[in-house]
């Protein structure tokens, strides 16, 4: 399955107001056609459990219809697709560290529900040959590394009983960090794809983001700047800034990105897994020229190492490529991502 140059449909069936009106208006066939016309080969579809099941766990048939329609549009316009379970009952990356809300790794009944949801999803969509299944968007906590491996094994077993060869995607802990793929158990077959997310340096890609602790809501951050600049500035981010403050690279830019990505490459190569970047992008509060420079460096490293990925994100979500902020560089950015030019 070709998953080389894609984009996320974030904010449609996930991280959204879960209403029929929103589902019916946020994304339609014309959006999928536009993505295909850009020259991309796939879309990633983040989906929250609320779309597919009630709070008591009963299937919502209409929720599956939104995905089915999208997969049909993808077939029509020759796109592949990833169904990404962005939020599960009992686990939301936004609630990381909250044991009362996130019970997936401590409650056997919640795990059984997670597995049943995946059986339902695969039963409905395994007839499509253009779809891959991503187990869970981001597992965050360090203490859940072993528990995540155990749940992966159970989920892959459940899915393989229905779809023996369908591509299955999953990543490591700590927001799908490149540094945690090495903690995963070796995949059981060749149709497993390791994924990571790439937003480094976070200080630049998430500048002024209200949801990042200690991020200055007013300061412009430029790219590439010096490593010394980013090391000093990233200290305020604490744990989330450590990939910069502990990096060996002497220069910010391609050298730094190569160092980061190499950890993912090494982990996947060691176990013979394919490698894919499920999310990468720059917030719509960043300077445009610097945004373009960051994308050029990331695309260069991805292309050099034959890594496919999906931009975050198509619309809204503070990263929307089709939104007004990106208008001045949108065509150049899409050409860069699709053609490497």
SSE map:
Layout: E1 5-8, H1 20-26, H2 29-38, E2 42-48, H3 49-52, H4 61-76, E3 80-87, H5 108-125, E4 131-134, H6 145-160, E5 168-171, H7 173-176, E6 192-198, H8 202-205, H9 227-234, H10 242-245, H11 254-271, E7 274-280, H12 288-304, E8 308-311, H13 330-339
Parallel strand pairs: 1-2, 1-8, 2-3, 3-4, 4-5, 5-6, 6-7, 7-8
Shape: globular
Largest sheet: 8 strands, parallel, barrel
Overall SS class: alpha/beta
SSE pattern, N- to C-terminal: EHHEHHEHEHEHEHHHHEHEH
Counted by DSSP, the helix tally is 13
Helix content: 25-40%
Chain-averaged pLDDT? 97
- Beginning-to-end CA distance, first to last residue: 24 Å
- Quick one: how many beta strands? 8
For the biggest β-sheet, the strand order reads 1-2-3-4-5-6-7-8
Q: Approximately how much beta-strand content do the residues carry?
A: 5-15%
Description:
There is one protein chain. Helix content is 40%, strand content 13%. Helix 5 (108-125) runs parallel beside helix 6 (145-160) and helix 11 packs parallel to helix 12 (288-304). It is built from 13 helices and eight strands. Strands 1-2-3-4-5-6-7-8 form an eight-stranded parallel barrel. The chain has 341 residues and is α/β, with parallel strands linked by helices. It is globular, with a radius of gyration of 19 Å.
């Amino acid at each position: 399955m070709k998953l080389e140059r894609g984009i996320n449909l974030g904010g449609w069936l996930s991280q959204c107001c879960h209403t029929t009106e929103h589902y019916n208006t946020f994304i339609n066939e014309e959006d999928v056609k536009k993505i295909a016309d850009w020259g991309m080969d796939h879309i990633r579809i983040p989906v929250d459990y609320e779309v597919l099941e009630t709070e008591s766990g009963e299937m919502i048939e209409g929720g599956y219809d939104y995905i089915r329609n999208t997969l049909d549009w993808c077939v029509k316009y020759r796109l592949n697709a990833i169904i990404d379970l962005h939020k599960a009952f009992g686990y939301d990356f936004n609630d990381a560290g909250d044991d009362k809300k996130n019970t997936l790794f401590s409650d056997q009944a919640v795990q059984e529900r997670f597995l049943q949801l995946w059986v339902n999803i695969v039963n409905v969509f395994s007839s499509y040959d253009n779809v891959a299944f991503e187990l869970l968007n981001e597992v965050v906590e360090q203490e859940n590394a072993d528990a995540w491996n155990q749940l992966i094994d159970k989920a892959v077993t459940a899915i393989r009983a229905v779809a023996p060869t369908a591509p299955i995607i999953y990543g490591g802990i700590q927001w799908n960090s490149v540094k945690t793929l090495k903690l995963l158990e070796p995949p059981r077959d060749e149709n497993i794809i390791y994924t990571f997310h790439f937003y480094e340096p976070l200080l630049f890609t998430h500048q002024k983001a209200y949801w990042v602790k200690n991020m200055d809501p007013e300061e412009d951050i430029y790219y590439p700047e010096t490593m010394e600049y980013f090391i000093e500035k990233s200290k305020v981010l604490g744990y989330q800034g450590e990939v910069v403050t502990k990096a060996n690279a002497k220069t910010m830019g391609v050298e730094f990105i190569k160092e980061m990505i190499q950890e993912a490459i090494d982990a996947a190569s060691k176990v013979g897994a394919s490698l894919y970047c499920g999310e990468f992008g720059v917030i719509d509060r960043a300077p445009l020229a610097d945004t373009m420079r960051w994308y050029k460096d990331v695309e260069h490293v991805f292309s050099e190492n034959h890594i496919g990925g999906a931009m975050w994100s198509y619309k809204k979500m503070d990263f929307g490529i089709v939104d007004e902020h990106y208008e001045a560089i949108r065509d150049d950015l899409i050409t860069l991502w699709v053609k490497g030019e």
